[in-house]
Amino acid sequence: MTLRRTAVCLLIAAMTGGAAMTSDAAVVAVDIGVAPPPPRVMAPPPPRPGWIWVDGYWRWNGHRHVWVNGHWVHARHGYRYESPHWVQVGPRWHFVPGGWVR
What we know:
By secondary structure, the chain is an alpha+beta fold. It has one domain. Helix content is 20%, strand content 33%. It is built from 1 helix and 9 strands; from the N terminus they run αβββββββββ.
């Protein structure tokens, strides 16, 4: 394979990988047998017009739970934001990713 062709293939792979990471389809379902720790109780910052505060949550990294700090997301008219959270289903725990809901 020529150097130019290799560079083009690498560029295409990088562009497609980046696009997949930002799409909703990139969210992977997590269903584990380890309960998450209790949420950290933190006072949310003062409201900002046009923005929604998303509380922090525990994320599973494949080996243990890792805390993800809260952050601001731009508000969407006609939608409400559902924060990421864990739901117990029998003896297992299922992660529900956050997102906009009508």
